Structures are given as C-alpha cells and as structure tokens.
Amino acid sequence: MLKEFILAIIFGSLIGFGASSAIVTINQKKSPVSVSSPTSIPTPISSTANLTSTPTLSIETPKNESFVSTANITLKGNSPGNSFILVSTAKDSYQATADNSGSFSLDLSLSLGANILKIKSISPDNSENNLELLVTYSTAKLE
Q: Is 6 strand, coil or helix?
C-alpha cells in the first residue's frame, strides 16, 4: 500500500512538471520578445509651448476620513467647468452639474457607519476625473 502511494506521488509530480513545462514553452512561443532600435531621436518640448493641465476634481467639504454627526451633508467641490458630477454611495446615487467656474454643491444622505463616496466628474470634452472619500456618520458622543 505504501509502495503504490509513493509511486502515485512520483508519477503525479512528473506529469505536473511536464504539463507546466509545456505551458511555459507554449506561452514563450506565443509572445516572442523583440528588441528594436529607435528610428528617430525624440525632440524636446520647447519652452514656449503652451502646456496646460486639465483641471482636476477636488472636494472642499467634507474632508476625507471625516466624522459627521448628521445623516444629511452637503458635498462641495470644484471640477472642470460645466462638468457632470455623479456621486455614488452604497445605497444611492446623486447627480449635479458644475457651474462655469467648476463649483458644485450636492446634498447627500449617509448611512450609519462608514460611507465611501465615489465621485466622478465628466467634463464637456468627455474627460473623466474620479475621487473616493470616506465619511463616517456616527451618533455616538465623542468626549
């Protein structure tokens, strides 16, 4: 009985090593690594080039990882002007539109405990900015 058990382990190991070697060999043949030399030298950006950064999404209130004592809060922030703002919580979704300067304000209702707010802004040129905030709603009195 012990002899058959040891033979089964040896044959199983050989079959496993053979199968894994075959898979590695096949994967290496599918994606050959080729080294190519650059055909052109990159040109540096001139100092007179107009470099503008895309405005990002930022939240003024509430701050990330903040504690609040009321279920209803107002989310205030900035994004690219005229962006569509979408906020998702575990139980609800909210939407708003930023004004021309990018400011927005949105009233939200939180669940008791930790709330992850997933905030997305989609600008008129379809560029997206994403942000997550953790806001904890608690009725416990902290001393």
A: helix
Q: Considering only 22-26, 79-83, 87-91, which range has the smallest mean pLDDT?
A: 22-26
Report residue 35 as tokens.
Answer: 């080294």
Among candidates 63, 94, 92, which has minimal Cα distance to 76?
A: 63
Structure tokens at 41: 């030298």
How many other CB atoms are there within 10 angstroms of residue 94's CB atom?
16
- Distance (Å) of CA 104 to CA 8, 99, 101, 129: 68, 7, 9, 14
- How far is 42 from 2, CA to CA, in rounded Å? 68
The residues, ordered by sequence, that sit 6+ positions from 106 with a Cβ below 8 Å of its Cβ are: 74, 75, 76, 85, 87, 94, 95, 96
- In the structure encoding, which two tokens stand for residue 94, read together? 């909210």
Residue 6: count other Cβ atoms within 10 Å of its Cβ: 10
Its pTM stands at 0.60
Strands 84-88 and 58-61: unpaired
